[in-house]
Amino acid sequence: MKMNDYQKERIIGTLSTIKEKSPLYERIFKDVDTSKIRTQEDFEKLPFTEKEDLRDAYPLGIKAVPEKDIVRIHSSSGTTGVPVIIPYTKKDVEDWGTMFERCYRMAGLTAEDVVHVTPGYGLWTAGIGFQYGAEKLGAMVIPMGPGNTEKQIKMMTDLHSTVLCATSSYALLLSEEIKKRGIGSKISLRKGIIGSERWGDRMRERIANDLGVELYDIYGLTEIYGPGIGISCSYENGIHMWDDYLYFEVIDPKTGKVLPDGQVGELVITTLQKEGAPLIRYRTRDLTRIIPGDCPCGSCYPRIGIITGRTDDMVKVKGTIIFPAQFDSTLSATEGVESEYQVMIDHSEGKDMVTVFFETKLQDDRRPALEKEVLKRLKEAIGITTVPKAVNVGDLPRSEKKTNRIFDNRH
Ligand code: ZN
Q1: Are 90 and 77 in contact, with CB atoms under 8 Å apart?
Q2: Is-contact 264 305, C-beta < 8 A?
């Protein structure tokens, strides 16, 4: 994507002082004369910022303003246990709210809506972001947080929630519960704003049908404000991203080279307005592509594709690199296969074995044929031989957190 003049101006401005302001960038750019960066080509030679760098800067080495200007912190947990702390100034908090409000408007929300927020509150950015954006819009917020299905449903029916904010797995759990209780007619939901974890078309269809809502994918990560830096529109063909706050690149995760628009790679984000913790070329580890051309909705904001996975999720099996999204798309296109599945990768007798558990409503006698069909389709799509196993609907675990569906048991 071509860097526009506004973005270039902001980036040059940030680079002119970032080494003095930020201990993080004093280190990352120690061998770079940042005053010489003038063009997009120059910019694309700058070193990346990795999650590791943010972790090494714990607790506040990432901040680029005096501590008295910080009004809030958020934190993302790492797998290693050392958290990453992201400081926000007053302007950062406001900007995030402005972007979030824009997301809600794109999804067609108004001040009349009742927004039911189920993502968690606390150090991570989810709940409070959903809440502040909705308040800026003038809607009424029910700040539930996750869990306690009983209470969720009570509030939802008594207060007539019109918008559900949730992860896809929690939305699925709630929709199943509502269906089971036969209380669909008491539910006033019309929209679902779903956190951008990877989810299959079939799961999306089920949630939309069971809840009777239109669904929107919202994108974000704690390191870059939080959720709300982009959202899908009603045409459901990608996520519009707020490019007046952020600059996007998609790179080859192996070589670090910027890829042409349309090609799938790792999303890299540079903040244009952030004060507390500006980030330059931050590697998100999310796999997506920049969608070329204009969206029929008429929005001028550029689009990325729905996130197809994480660079950390790429698994090598029998010499082939596979992405979880490949299982999503193949399974959701197979008649008789329901939305939940789990992939187990094991190593025995010198060979990798991939077992694919999927849920089905079919009776036992019809399952062998379906397993054979799944085997054939996965072989075509991914190029490896798997062991498909049909199980009953409800047999696989549901989670209120982001669900990992691929388990590599080889190490
Ligand atoms: Zn659009």
Answers
A1: no
A2: yes
In the reported structure, the alpha carbon of residue 102 is separated from the centroid of ligand 1 by a whole-number distance in angstroms of 13
In the predicted model, is pLDDT for residue 79 greater than 60? no
Distance 147 CA to ligand 1 centre (A): 32
Separation of alpha carbons 394 and 370, rounded Å = 18
Cα 286 to averaged position of ligand 1 atoms, centre (Å): 21
The structure's pTM equals 0.82
* Average pLDDT for 325-353: 88
Q: What is the pLDDT of residue 149?
A: 95
Report the C-alpha gap between 228 and 225 in whole angstroms: 8
Distances 168 to 193, 362, 378 between C-alpha atoms, Å: 9, 24, 24
User: What is the whole-number distance in angstroms between the Cα of residue 151 and the centre of ligand 1?
Assistant: 35
Q: What is the spatial distance between Cα 75 and Cα 255, in angstroms, rounded to a whole number?
A: 29
Confirm if 277 and 64 have CB atoms less than 8 A apart: yes
Rounded CA separation 175/328 (Å): 20
Beta-strand relationship, 70-76 and 315-317 = unpaired
Peptide bond before 83: cis, by omega within 30 degrees of 0? no
Tokens in use for 213?
A: 């809502």
Parallel, antiparallel or unpaired: strands 282-288 and 309-310: antiparallel
Over residues 148-191, the pLDDT tens digits come to 999 999 999 999 999 999 998 899 999 999 999 999 999 999 99
Neighbours of 2 (CB within 10 A): 7
